[in-house]
Amino acid sequence: MANVFMISDHHFGHKHIIDFESRPFTGSEEMTRVMTEKWNAVVGKDDQVFHLGDFSFLNMEKTKQIVSALNGYKVLILGNHDRGRGRRWWLDAGFDEVSEYPIVYGGFFFLSHEPMYMNKHMPYVNIHGHIHGQKYEGTQYVNVSVEHWDYTPVPFDTIKARVVPSEEQ
Q: CB atoms < 10 A from the CB of 8, how many?
């Protein structure tokens, strides 16, 4: 069975994100190369990756080159910086599926770009990005922005193990 991964906020081609988020890269070309290598080091050709938004600031040709260089079946949930281009643009760039809205995964996990409202009485977990290096407290939120995971897609099993008690898995 293929593995499932989650990740968000690569911001490919966005040189200012290096300073904004104190990323350890000398420029956007190095950032693209390293993040592509880290993705392909863990994601196999038959694996599935949910990218939770803010993928690329580059033009179609360069974005297409990056998407095609990344392993796996790629699902994009549009982030605030992706929405201006629309669903069709991202499909043409090479994503296998594109959603304009959050996705419910496994009946228990809300996959979204921005964190969603949750309270302690809601039996769900929100896997999100958008807030980069920040983090919400508690087990109902998992921030999969690249800054929290060494710029590497996170196995869904790792996320699940953090938030679902072992007797329920």
A: 32
